[in-house]
Amino acid sequence: MMISKVDKDTALARQLLEFVENCSWYEVKDHIADMLRLWEFTDWECMFAALEDGKIVGMVSVMKTDYYPLPEIYPWISCIFVTESARGRRISGQLIDHANGYAKELGFTKTYIPTEYTGLYEHYGYRYIRDIVNYGGGTDRLYVKELE
User: Fold this and answer.
1) pLDDT single digits (tens) 111-130
2) Where is each N-acetyltransferase domain found (predicted)?
3) Which of 36, 66, 104, 142 has CB atoms 3.0–4.6 Å from 147's, for a disulfide?
């Protein structure tokens, strides 16, 4: 398995868009697909794809903003998804580690993950900070990780 940065107007970008359009993450796949179609990434923002035998099995993004009115908090590790057939092999952890390595190279000292889950991202070194309200009015949990 390898993790590659996805660049605009590349075969990998087209492959990632198709992956997203066909993934089972129904709640956000349209939003992520639109981000890819419109290439709404600025500066250092990007997506990474996990590939096995040339096929995408997972993704993650590093973003300035997420689905929350909190512009002072960034970078966000977001869009974390691994296809069902590839789950159970710690690919999510590898994607998160890769995204954190990228953020650290950029000079960031911490990253944030929003989630509705408890007990998941703690396994990757994140610690709960507080509940946050998203643009849709729902409440999620905000986690932070200090980058070493």
Assistant:
1) 999 998 899 999 999 999 99
2) 1-148
3) 104
